Amino acid sequence: MPSTSALSRLQSAGLYALELEAVSRHFGALVALADINLTVKAGERRAVLGSNGAGKTTLFNAITGDFPPTTGRVRLFGEDVTDLPVHERIRRGLRRTYQISLLFGGLSVIDNIYLACRGVSRGRFSLRRPRKDDSGMEAAETLLSAVHLDNVRDTPVGDLSHGQQRQLEIALALAGAPRLILFDEPAAGLSPTERTELVEILQALPDHIGFIIIEHDMDVALRVSESVTMMHNGRIFKEGTPEEIENDPEVQELYLGHGHG
What we know:
Layout: H1 2-12, E1 16-27, E2 30-41, E3 45-49, H2 56-64, E4 71-76, E5 79-80, H3 86-91, E6 94-96, H4 109-119, H5 135-146, H6 162-173, E7 180-184, H7 192-203, E8 210-214, H8 218-224, E9 227-232, E10 235-240, H9 242-247, H10 249-256
Parallel strand pairs: 3-8, 3-9, 6-7, 7-8
Antiparallel strand pairs: 1-2, 1-4, 4-5, 9-10
């Protein structure tokens, strides 16, 4: 499969998808991140967990460049991007979703996806209307199916359920050629049925696309990830497999409670 060969090429290059070296972020006297060292392999699916205020979203902001690190270095696939702006990191294959939906509510689902595909293409500034065989529209139709939104293709985004809007955000993050996606609480506010569908979508992503997911729903996070980083007070507290994290007594005490099953 193409995705498998792409993953093999990335892994054979011996480069990590993401490397954080002693990354800290200060807001005045507040230390939101403190000396974070983290590596994520190409194609890896990792969950970053922790209570509110643990530094999870600040970590994402440091990776994407929304709020660059106060100290430390960020590398994407071996390239130092610490001082690069957000759009340059996007060009290098980094994508992100946010806790608050960022969508064009008055446009249809397919138009939102098409604009995302167009936005990362060479012809993004062209004023010509797309042709029927436009490659961007073909890509948009593929992503529409990948996130299970075929039945609402022409529906205005403002009329979608919250869960459908979350699915659409995943489609937008998949536009272009992403190599690493950061998902910021994609299951927030979803019903049990919608969460099941979210898990199916994430598990079906091509092998060469790695992701990091911040998620308060432990069942979702542990089902879609192969490694877990626990954060506490702006620092990395624990790392391990989903099974190791779930069964760790200190993790249970701090985050899960003794009754988690």
